[in-house]
Automatic annotation (TrEMBL):
<dbReference type="InterPro" id="IPR008922">
    <property type="entry name" value="Di-copper_centre_dom_sf"/>
</dbReference>
<feature type="domain" description="Tyrosinase copper-binding">
    <location>
        <begin position="145"/>
        <end position="156"/>
    </location>
</feature>
<dbReference type="InterPro" id="IPR002227">
    <property type="entry name" value="Tyrosinase_Cu-bd"/>
</dbReference>
<dbReference type="InterPro" id="IPR050316">
    <property type="entry name" value="Tyrosinase/Hemocyanin"/>
</dbReference>
<keyword id="KW-0479">Metal-binding</keyword>
<protein>
    <recommendedName>
        <fullName>Tyrosinase copper-binding domain-containing protein</fullName>
    </recommendedName>
</protein>
<dbReference type="GO" id="GO:0046872">
    <property type="term" value="F:metal ion binding"/>
</dbReference>
<dbReference type="Pfam" id="PF00264">
    <property type="entry name" value="Tyrosinase"/>
</dbReference>
<dbReference type="GO" id="GO:0016491">
    <property type="term" value="F:oxidoreductase activity"/>
</dbReference>
<feature type="region of interest" description="Disordered">
    <location>
        <begin position="18"/>
        <end position="38"/>
    </location>
</feature>
Amino acid sequence: MSGNGEFIPDQGDIILANPDGSEAARLPPGTGGGCVTTGPFRNMSVNLGPLGLSLPGGGTGTNPDGLFAYNPRCLKRDLTTAVNRMFSNASAVLHNILVPQDVGRFQLEMQGDPETGTMGMGIHGGGHFTLGGDPGRDFFVSPSDPAFYLHHANIDRVWWMWQMLSPDDRQFSEDAVMGTNTFLNQPPSANTTLDDVLEYGYAAGPPLKIRDTMSTFAGPFCYLYL
């Protein structure tokens, strides 16, 4: 997966904001920040974005030529051990699997909960900001870093392990999903059900009901995690 980016000294903290503009988290800079220069992705070009890149010292970076304009640049990483230790360490993963008793609490732990000290980060965001860099710190473009897919496969694995502790309730009951059909309920929408349909558009594949995607052993899937 290649490694860190070239070290850039004197980078400022990464400051994340809540929807109301207040500070959600302040993350220290990592040990890289520049272009990846080793491994199979050292010459990789990132072409989309930035659309919402969290910048050292605060602020957000966007593509000056327009959000979806062609913008080739090197893959950057800023590996940050401190973020991993705070939010996405082995103890945090184990807690996320064993403690939540419903999917709402599981999701809150995964995405970050001020009550448990994860400050809007959790193991999901913690993984992204452990990688850092561009596009790793860009909410919209982070899949342009190949390491994104390893991280999200592990997020799926954590959910799978949580499901397996009570599979009937956590896969196919009406309590297996919660929340609304829009991100952060913007715009306001109806509560999600297992019969709601997932539309994949250009990502490939036919529309699927959520209930057909809840098991790694059913529907279009046939895999398990070890």
